Amino acid sequence: MTDVPMRGTAHPHTRVIRPSLAAARSAAVASDPGSPGGDDRSNTAIITRTKPKTKRPSLYRVLLLNDDYTPMEFVVLVVERFFNKTQEDAYQIMMHVHQNGVGECGVFTYEVAETKVTQVMDFARKHQHPLQCVMEKK
Ligand code: TYC
């Protein structure tokens, strides 16, 4: 969908894209208040958008890092508990991290990923394991 210059249309989803510029023009020309943007006397157009704008959120991988001390069983428990994996999937993820140094437990929006990282780090600290969990933008 492209943004096209339009005059005073009243579609329910039509919005002025640059309201600050629109306001400045409107104030500068001080013309017909019934015409949005009041642009007739300045020969300018207000750019509007008709389609409701949706933006897909950025996604983040949550990763576990390998270390030499955290017990394998603990990592499996973490993956089951915080990433809702079956014991079989959790074991595969744990082994991938153990063998490769790092592995993905899931992909989430920013706030969910941040919450997972905090939950895992707090749980590991509470049990005195050095397990590290991080997030990275996809
Ligand atoms: N390397 C650990 C061990 O041999 C197991 C482990 C796996 C630790 C995954 C952390 O993220 C991790 N006990």
UniProtKB/TrEMBL annotation:
One Pfam family, short name: ClpS
Taxonomic lineage: Bacteria, Pseudomonadati, Pseudomonadota, Alphaproteobacteria, Hyphomicrobiales
Keywords: Hydrolase, Protease
Annotated stretches, region: Disordered: 25-53
Name of the protein this chain belongs to: ATP-dependent Clp protease adapter protein ClpS
Coiled coil: none
Annotated NCBIfam families: PRK00033.1-2, PRK00033.1-5
UniProt cross-references to HAMAP family, sorted A to Z: ClpS
Family of the protein in this entry: Belongs to the ClpS family.
GO biological processes: proteolysis
Assembly and oligomerization: Binds to the N-terminal domain of the chaperone ClpA.
